Amino acid sequence: MTATPLTLDLRRGDGPPLDPSVDHEIQAIVAGESLNSTCTTDLAAGPWNFDTRPGYGPGSSMGDVIPTGSPRQGELPQEYRDASDEELDARVRAAKATLGDRAVVLGHFYQREEVVRHADYVGDSFQLANAAKAHPEAEAIVFCGVHFMAETADLLSRPEQAVILPNLAAGCSMADMADIDQVEECWEQLEDVFGDLEAVDADGRVPVIPVTYMNSSAAIKGFVGRHGGIVCTSSNARTVLEWAFARGRRVLFFPDQHLGRNTAKAMGVPLEQMPMWNPRRPLGGNDDATLLDSRVILWHGFCSVHRRFSVEQIDKARAEHPGVRVIVHPECPMDVVDAADEAGSTDYIQKAIAAATEPTTFAIGTEVNLVQRLAAQYPQHEIFCLDPVVCPCSTMYRIHPGYLAWVLEALVAGEVLNRITVPASVSEPATVALERMLAAKP
Ligand code: SF4
To answer: The whole model's pTM is what?
Structure first.
């Protein structure tokens, strides 16, 4: 778990301080003061401009279809929309000081710098859920991340603790790609192909074990818990797949096809035994024979941030920076992972950079807010994002300091806004699936 303090006064050589703020860079691009480019100039606006519109808002998943039932955010009071950056910064600090230990603020690695600087803990979704668990005394856990992360924190925290998501429109396009109704329907179709999905064979294995990535709704984690399955993170996906193969002949992996494919391929599973399940087609677009021969059935989901990375970007980085070390996240497509020097979780990427003893050039394939912060944090290295277009995660973008100030000042006034609660019928099996993951050992 990483405690925050991140200094803003970092220098590379004798040059000017490096600015870790992606928002500042976007503002400079839109003002014509930077030669870089962004995927949309809408990113320079406040996220409240998009709260009532359909879609994920500007950023990496703006081209994806948002489910109709996704939570929407009500209007942010005008005073928070009008406040300057400096005023919001001061108001968040003041509210936090008043609340003291009553509230813990968690900030995901991909969150904007202006929010992360207020976080008591910075980390990936699972590290932050554990940070929430480590503070049973806090009345409120303010989760500056996305919806499924707040749900996981609710699963792992005490029932009396309120988990708050500052902007309810901060979902996750990848998590939304595995809808519980579609997954239930898939399971019924697999029953038609494999028969009783709880029947064990002579080796003691069932036909299919469902495995869900942490980046999925609590409803999906609950489904997995009810059907003998397990949750994984990008750090432990291999260990979890080994756990699953010890108990089942094959795995149904969702929502991220790329993490599933990259992990199973590294374990020696042939690509032809990893069919894709398209939830809009009968049998996911497969025939019985393909499914019967499969080892890993991959759900048709992906992360729109990590899908932006390409082999061409890696080739360009190698041509322009001889000796560059290319590290990408395993949510990237397989050809990108294959072309990189290393692939690993955000935690892996951070540790790899921290462990480099000689000045090194790193080209990183993950969300730009983390990459830019690492570049500022480690000025002895040259660190840049493989994607030259500044295009942050659309849904992380929805958490702005204005929303953070709003929910914290409401807490000071005794009001809990935007509470995320997982119903008991879901939380019990979902917790079972999480506990299986915690108990799985390499
Ligand atoms: S980076 Fe990708 S997986 Fe992470 S929250 Fe954004 S859309 Fe979801």
So the answer is: 0.94
